[in-house]
Write a structure and sequence with these properties.
Porin; eight-stranded antiparallel beta barrel; about 10% helix; about 70% strand; disordered N terminus
Length: about 250
């Protein structure tokens, strides 16, 4: 009798549409999920700036090169299940790091026309900070009793603060003025915003009925343009491939 009842129940479950099966009560089920993640971000942008100015009635040149990247990320987000298998979400990500720059210049000679002198120097610890808000359409995919997946996509809104090397102060050694050295490097901190996109997938394992552990994989990218007083511009591409793990709370 017990075997017949179990067989009957199993047959009914298999005959139910997939959407109806997804609505059946199961552990770690709820409409609202809150997540807190920590992890890392892979991605960088090579930045090069050139600037020309007049010195000793000739053209002098300044050039800087730096690779902009961040390291660890902190991600806080939430999703709301609207239908059986779909919903909406929002996330906030912050990351920061420091990078190095190499500066070089071509300095005209004060005594001889057409005999420029070259200078170069390196600089460490230029700061980078990224903040992003991600809006998402979410697809929920039940897997087994304690494991489910979520896939999301949507726009991302970035705010970037970046430190740039923008110039230098030099000293020349008389009487021949053949030696030039860089005394200091001018730094500028600029803030700009830009819009991009995000694509993500994550797996959640239910530890209890309301607490879970999750692993997130996301790719996000944006374009942010910085302008300078000399008319030059630099474009950065914040974001990159993010891998993070953390806690899930579901209600």
């Amino acid at each position: 009798m017990r075997k017949s009842a179990l067989l009957c129940a199993g047959t009914i479950l298999l005959l139910l549409p997939a959407e109806s099966r997804a609505q059946l009560p199961q552990p770690f089920d709820g409409r609202v999920t809150v997540s807190v993640n920590a992890g890392g971000q892979a991605g960088s942008t090579d930045v090069s700036r050139q600037r020309a100015f007049s010195l000793y009635e000739e053209e002098a040149r300044f050039e800087s090169n730096q690779t902009v990247s961040t390291g660890g990320i902190l991600d806080i987000g939430g999703t709301y299940r609207v239908g059986a298998n779909w919903g909406v979400g929002i996330g906030y990500t912050r990351s920061q790091g420091s990078n190095d720059a190499v500066v070089a210049g071509s300095i005209p000679h004060p005594l001889f026309f057409g005999q420029p002198r070259t200078v170069n120097a390196s600089l460490t610890g230029l700061s980078t900070r990224e903040r992003a808000v991600h809006l998402q359409a979410v697809l929920f995919v039940p897997f087994v009793e304690r494991v489910d997946f979520a896939f999301a996509a949507g726009p991302s809104f970035y705010s970037v603060r970046q430190e740039f090397a923008t110039g230098f102060a030099i000293s020349e050694v008389p009487p021949g003025f053949n030696t030039v050295s860089i005394d200091s490097i001018d730094l500028t901190t600029a803030r700009r915003s830009g819009t991009g996109f995000n694509l993500s997938g994550e797996a959640t394992y239910a530890v209890t009925n309301t607490i879970g552990a999750g692993l997130m994989l996301r790719y996000t990218r944006a374009n942010v343009e910085f302008g300078f007083g000399d008319g030059g511009t630099v474009e950065l591409s914040p974001g990159g491939l993010q891998i993070a793990a953390g806690v899930r709370l579901r209600f």
